[in-house]
Amino acid sequence: MRPWKSKIVANSPLVSHTWGVTVSSLNRDVCILGLGLIGGSLLKDLQASGHSVFGYNRSAAAVTAATSEGYAADTDLAAVLTAAAKRDALIVIATPMPAVAAMLDAIATYAPTCSFTDVVSVQQAVCDLVVERGLQDRYVGSHPMAGTAHSGWEAAQEGLFHDAAWVIGFDAAAAAFASNEPVPPQWITTFVDVVALAHTVGARVIPATAARHDAAVARISHLPHVLAEALSVVGDQGGALSLSLAAGSYRDGTRVAGTQPALVRAMCETNHAALLDALDETITLLSEARHTLAAQPPSVEILAEAGYRARTRFAARSLADGKTRPVIRLQPGADDWIHQLMHAEHTGAVIDIFAPRPENSGTHPNEQPDTLR
Amino acid sequence: MRPWKSKIVANSPLVSHTWGVTVSSLNRDVCILGLGLIGGSLLKDLQASGHSVFGYNRSAAAVTAATSEGYAADTDLAAVLTAAAKRDALIVIATPMPAVAAMLDAIATYAPTCSFTDVVSVQQAVCDLVVERGLQDRYVGSHPMAGTAHSGWEAAQEGLFHDAAWVIGFDAAAAAFASNEPVPPQWITTFVDVVALAHTVGARVIPATAARHDAAVARISHLPHVLAEALSVVGDQGGALSLSLAAGSYRDGTRVAGTQPALVRAMCETNHAALLDALDETITLLSEARHTLAAQPPSVEILAEAGYRARTRFAARSLADGKTRPVIRLQPGADDWIHQLMHAEHTGAVIDIFAPRPENSGTHPNEQPDTLR
């Protein structure tokens, strides 16, 4: 048994009062910093589901729009965070990456005990800023895999996260596990709250440490943006006839090139190391295809076959992403729960939070805690 | 005045009996060789619009399915083409590229006077096979820019071509123009018929010679397939976590990698020269982005800005593709009509066929023909 186990479970009120049920709703106010596409959509979803939620945004225009639509929002960051501290709210950093450091400083100053998360598309850089400030015990990183080519409050919409994958980090737990230290109790509470936040808006939670998240999104989110930009340019260089003939394959392949360049740059440049690996693999594949296409007879067999196999695997996996997909149920703090997180990360599995009732102990493989409340 | 003008107009019954009206319907039976996605969809659309249409397919399964759904189809190519000859049908070659040569040989044998077109995604290679056989006076190449990732009769659907761009070639006319020769009368009749075929199924006609068509589709159709294959592979190489996190940008960017590899190979390998140019431009852009991303500070500014500008131009052009977009009206055989085709090719403009009534001559810039019927 890991040394921190019984202590954590006994000390975690959110876990101890949810024995026997899946923790799928959040019992805490939420404070959202940044009301763009992601933050704004989260605000709308949470309010629609009856949660007490309020937000900060730098631009007055978005705040005015949100307020006129019946949401609580303000441009005064200090006032918003002071309210978050008073209400012990879960804070969500939903600004672009360049503003994250300032948000962390403000949280440290005005909400010095609140748990917080983020929804930034690159996680290691946020983690590093959090650790620099010594805030890691109350921070759980997260990244909902949802978006459109549009941005800003006006693009925010209810239902954006429904059935989307939502990555939730466990770097602090993995680090504690590696050094045989107990996981901080507030971290576990925060983890459970952030999972519940994702579940509240209908997302499926997949755990991943920051480095593995960043490596994965370089391949399936940042690289697609880079390739879409390149395809846009090469199509455009074909002139008016090319653009007139462009149909589904070009439209789909360039769609995310319609994203504001500043957002693309923030993602790609922040995640440059992982993206370089993915980009190098891509350039190698294309150069090999170029080589076989210039040969006699011209051939793209290797790439076409490999791409089709890969796409088929992805399609099969996507089909399996529905409600029938197995869910790994975790009891935070129980034996092996960090092993389970690592297993879920490795297999890209969805997790749920579960704490068994004492009378059900025979049906649950995890050892029961020694004390209840 | 070009030397062939009055002769052609006077000798072309299809043009001369449509004075004053847009030629938007086809007054001829249609014979389709190959009942896959494109040929099958064309068969369905034509029959739905009341045309007499029949087809050939090599595989008995598709013929059985089509026949059971009430369409006229047969696996006997000689019999089908003999019927086409008897009915003076317009023949449409809708097989994959590797079967085109055999179709042309069969047409030369069994339907030696019929006009014909094709719907193959690469045009120069078809043109070359046609010219090798001396069939160019009754051939007008064409390529509807419509498709899905699925193929075969089971993927055929009504409405596939609605509002799609449909390229129609004019290589024989351009060659005649260049050498100051008259355009063959049967070629003009064929051209008008193929335009009417495209209009019958709701497509917008854009003229382009085979070489320019192939250069354009390399950029906006074949390159997107190659990039989708590469993106599929690189995402897949990220393992289960990557595929679990993949969302809209990866799904859209890899969609056409779900196309059967044999079809991708047929397109890309047949159009290898033009695709190599597009692929080289892409590799250069990606290598430059790789270079700036590895620098300090990492940057993808140049590519992100250029890609966004290009996509914005494409989106604006797509919006303009609706009914408000200007249409260039041609009177086949009239003064300057080949100039107009070249202008439309250069600007990617949509064309329509129009022959003015004699009494309207004051309102039409084209000179009137000397004789009517």
TrEMBL record, chains A, B:
Residues 28-325 form the Prephenate/arogenate dehydrogenase domain. The keyword Oxidoreductase applies. It comes from the Bacteria. Keywords: Oxidoreductase. GO terms for molecular function: NAD+ binding; prephenate dehydrogenase (NAD+) activity; prephenate dehydrogenase (NADP+) activity. One of its GO terms (biological process) is tyrosine biosynthetic process. PANTHER family: PREPHENATE DEHYDROGENASE, PREPHENATE DEHYDROGENASE [NADP(+)]. Belongs to the prephenate/arogenate dehydrogenase family. This is Prephenate dehydrogenase. It comes from Corynebacterium choanae. The lineage of its organism: Bacteria, Bacillati, Actinomycetota, Actinomycetes, Mycobacteriales.
